[in-house]
Batch of 4 targets.
Target 1
Amino acid sequence: MSGGEVAGTLVAVFWAILVSFLAVALARLAQTLRATTKLVADVTDQAVPLLADASAAVRSAQTQIERVDAIASDVQEVTSNASALSTTVASTFGGPLVKVAAFGYGVRRAVSGRKEDTPPKAPRRTVIVGRTVPGTRREKRTRGKRD
C-alpha cells in the first residue's frame, strides 16, 4: 500500500464517520420535527375550544356590563329625582315651619316672662361652631341688664 492509498482510505473512513454523524443528526432532527408537529397539533386542538370559551366569557361580560350600566343610569336618575324632591320639600315646608317655630318660641318666651311666681330656670348652654359657651357668662350679662 502506498501513501496515496493510505491517504485515500483515511479520507474515506473520515467521510464515512462524518456521514454517519450527519445521518444521526438528521434522524434526531426528524424526530424533533415530528414531536413539534404533534405538539402544535395538540395545542391547536386544545386552543380552539379555549378560544371559544374565552369568546363566550367576553360576550357574557359585555352583557353584564351593559346591565350594570343600565342600573347605574337608573340609580343616577333616582338620585337626581330624590335631590329635586328634597329641594322642593325644603323650600315648600322649610320656610313656614321655621316661621311657626320662631313664633312659638316667641310666644313661649313672652308667656314665661310674665310669670313672676315661678323661680328662674338654670341658664342653658349654647353651642357655637362646636364649642359650648358657659351659661354663667350669659347669666351675668342678663343680670346686669335687668337690674
Target 2
Amino acid sequence: MNVTELLAVLQAQHDEATARAGELHGQIEHLTAALAGTEARLADLDTARKVISEAAPAGTEPDPPETSTAYQAIVNAFNQHPGQAFRARELHELLGMPTHEASVNITRSRLGRLTRQGFLTQPERGRYQKRT
C-alpha cells in the first residue's frame, strides 16, 4: 500500500467517524429535548395537583405528604444563597445529591430551563445564580 492509498483509507475512516459523531449529536439533542419536555410535564402535573388539593373542600381527604422534587430542591438552594453562583456539580454537593456525570447533566438541563424561565441568570459559562 502506498502513501496515497493510505491517505485515502484514513480520509474514508475520518468521514465515517464524522458522520457517526453527527448522528450521535443529533440523538443527544433529541434526548435532551425529550427529557426537558418530560420534566416540564412533571412540573405542570405537580402544580396541577397542588392547585386541585388546595381547592378541594377541607376534610374530604387527608393531604398527601409533600414531596420534594429536584426542581424544588434547586430553587430552595438558590433561595437560601441568593447572591452565590453555583456550578451544577457544586449544587449537587450542597444538596447531597449523587455527583456522577449523568445526574449532574440532568441538573444542568434543569438549570438551563430555570434560566430560560427567568428565575436564574448565568453570570459566566457554567455558573448559575438567582436573578435579583
Target 3
Amino acid sequence: MSTRVQHALEQLKATGVRITPQRHAILAYLMESMNHPTADEIYRALEPKFPSMSVATVYNNLKMFMEAGMVHELTYGDNSSRFDANVSDHFHVICEKCGKIEDFIYPSLKDVEHTAEQSTGFKVKDLRMELYGICSSCKEQ
C-alpha cells in the first residue's frame, strides 16, 4: 500500500470513519490508478474481489471521500461523473474522441482570479480549467 493511501486512511480514521475493506479498496484504486474513473468503472474493477459490493456502496463512499476533501468529482456535459483523487492544484486535458483525461500542472492562475474579482466584484473561490484535444492513442488511429 502506498504511503499516500496509508495517510488518507489515517486521516479518515482520525475523523471517526470506520475503514472497511471495500472503503480501503475504493480509495486505494482511486489513488493508485489516477485515471479519473467513473463510479461504474471502480465498481467493475473491484467487483471480482468484492462480489457482494454494490454500485451504491461505491457511490456512497465516493460521496464521503468528497465530503472529506479527498476526492473531486469531475463533470463534463452529459457524461458520467469521473472522480479524481489528486486534490492538489492541477488542470485537465480531455480527449474529444475517447474521453481520456490527463492531469497537467501549470503555474498558478492567481492573476486571472484577481482580474476576474476586480472586473466583476465577485470573490472567486475556485477555478477549473479544461483543455480539449485528441490524445496520442486516438491521433495514431
Target 4
Amino acid sequence: MIQYGFHPAPKPSKGKRVKLTQRQKGDISQQVDKQLKARSHGLCELCNAARATERSHLTGRPHLDEKTKVTDLIHLCTPCHDWLDETPEGIRSRNFIARAINTVLEHQTTK
C-alpha cells in the first residue's frame, strides 16, 4: 500500500528588512533629543516664553526619507504645539518654520 503523507514545501526564510518603517523613521533618538533640548535651552521655540515640554515633527513621518534629525523637530510648549497641529495657520507655518530653523543652523555651522 502507498502512503501519501503531508510534505509541505518549506517557506522561504524571511530576510532582514533593510528599509526603515515610517514608525522607525519618526522615532527620536536620545542623541537627537539632547540636540533639540540644547538648541531650545528648554524654552518653546515659537513663543520663547513658556517652558518647552513637547517635541513636534515639522516634517510628517510619511515624508521623512531617513531617521528623524534635529532639523525635523521643534521644541514647543503645549499651547504652541496645539496651534501648530490643529489650526490651518499652524499647519501652513510648518514649512516656513522648518526652512527658518535650517537656515539658522546652516549659518551657525559655517561660522
